[in-house]
Amino acid sequence: AIITLHNEKIVQNTVIKMERELIKKEQDMAKQYWDMVSLLTTLLNHNHLVEAGYQDDISFYTKQVYLQLQNKYPEYGITDEEIASVAHLVPIHDIGKIKVPLEILNKNGKLTDEEMNVVKQHPLVGAAMTQRFPEGVTTEKLNQYSYEICRHHHERYDGSGYPDGLKGNAIPMCAQVVGIVDAYDALINDRPYKRKYEPEEAIQMISNGECGAFSNQLMQCFQEAAKQQKWLKRKKLK
């Protein structure tokens, strides 16, 4: 009986030790994941592919639209964890643009068909980059979100987007939200090929379908988010 009890204690201690090691390993993996995301965001800033304050702005807009969706459409099953994760990941949605020549990205005027085809490769490049992120239990969902955001944020609800021409709810919700927020952010900021628009103009342009088709539900939530005091207050800081 004493030997049996002793062996059981050894086994129990071994199991506890293994569990602690697994938890630490997953925690380390999650830290590595977010360190990589931070590094990619820094890389975008360093290469002047995004403006100062871009990370905070686009994360904010993403969160506000997501909160509206969560509140108005509980059937979508949007969790707080999803909102927080996507809001933190959205700054890297255009990471694939680091492979696009700067002379194309900074070109004044309309791109040629050949140049546009080069630009349209950036979702595929970005998605491929996310497949090198750390893989584990704690990063499984994060890997899914980062891949879907990078690959599908230019898809449109009517199937007119790229690179895969996805249609309707075949487009992951995270990519739908990032798509509309990305369109808004691009409109309210200066680009080499266009002036910046006032937020009211940008909202109207998106509502008119000038940035592609979005679902009625997403459009409604985007418009509602843009009326909120937090959004209006942030607008004044632009």
Q: What features would you describe in this structure?
A:
The longest helix is centred in the N-terminal third of the chain and has 45 residues. The chain is globular, with a radius of gyration of 21 Å. The protein starts with a helix and ends with a helix. Helix content is 63%, strand content 0%. With 238 residues, it is mostly helical.
Major β-sheet, in short?
A: none
What is the CA-based Rg, rounded? 21 Å
Average of pLDDT? 86
Total strands: the figure is 0
Q: What is the terminal separation in angstroms?
A: 74 Å
Please mark out the parts with pLDDT under 50 across 5 or more consecutive residues, or reply none.
none
| Beta-strand percent range | under 5%
* Topology pattern, helix = H, strand = E: HHHHHHHHHHH
What share of the residues lie within helices? 55-70%
Structural class: mainly alpha
Shape: globular
Report the total helices.
11
How would you concisely characterize the structure shown here?
The longest helix is centred in the N-terminal third of the chain and has 45 residues, at 2-46.
